[in-house]
Amino acid sequence: MHDAEFPYDVQWTDIDAMSYNLDFTYDQTNFNGLPDLVRSLQSDGKHYVNIIDPGISITQPPGTYPPYDDGLKRAIFMTKFNSTEPIIGKVFFYSYRCVSILMYLYVF
């Protein structure tokens, strides 16, 4: 890109870069070297954007997926009304079950 003088200031990845579609992970086989690529981009003044979905998988064995385990401990997931029980749903067209991170939406 640089040698061809092609405008290139950001690289992004989506769910295809994730390991088993799990947020905050990456596929170390198909995206081997991703951390080095990100460091290289940043050292050249470029940016890296990793698209993260708001659904965190609940199908992993307990203690093996920190985003879910830590999220439960910190109570950051959306819960049923007047309850501490997380709301369980499905992400997009995937069949795995997930919880949603608590987000505040502002409508102007």
Q: Which sheet architecture does the biggest sheet show?
A: 3 strands, antiparallel
Helix content, binned percent: 10-25%
Structural class: alpha+beta
Q: List the strand order in the largest sheet.
A: 3-5-4
- Overall residue-averaged pLDDT value: 83
Poorly predicted regions are 103-108
DSSP E strands, number: 5
**Percent of residues in beta strands?**
15-25%
Order of helices and strands: EHEEHEE
Helical element count? 2
Inertia-based shape: elongated
Overall tally of domains: 2
Calculate Rg over CA atoms: 17 Å
End-to-end C-alpha gap: 41 Å
Provide keyphrases for this structure.
disordered C terminus; 2 helices; two-stranded parallel sheet; 17% strand; alpha+beta; three-stranded antiparallel beta sheet; 108 residues; single chain
Plain-language structure description:
By secondary structure, the protein is α+β, with helices and mostly antiparallel strands. The chain folds into two domains: 1-52, no CATH class; 53-108, no CATH class. The protein is built from two helices and five strands. It has helices spanning 34-43, 66-74, and strands spanning 10-13, 47-50, 55-57, 88-90, 97-100. The strands form two sheets. A three-stranded antiparallel sheet has the order 3-5-4, with no helix packed on it. The chain is elongated. The termini are far apart. Residues 103-108 have low confidence and may be disordered.
Write the SSE topology.
Blueprint: E1 10-13, H1 34-43, E2 47-50, E3 55-57, H2 66-74, E4 88-90, E5 97-100
Parallel strand pairs: 1-2
Antiparallel strand pairs: 3-5, 4-5
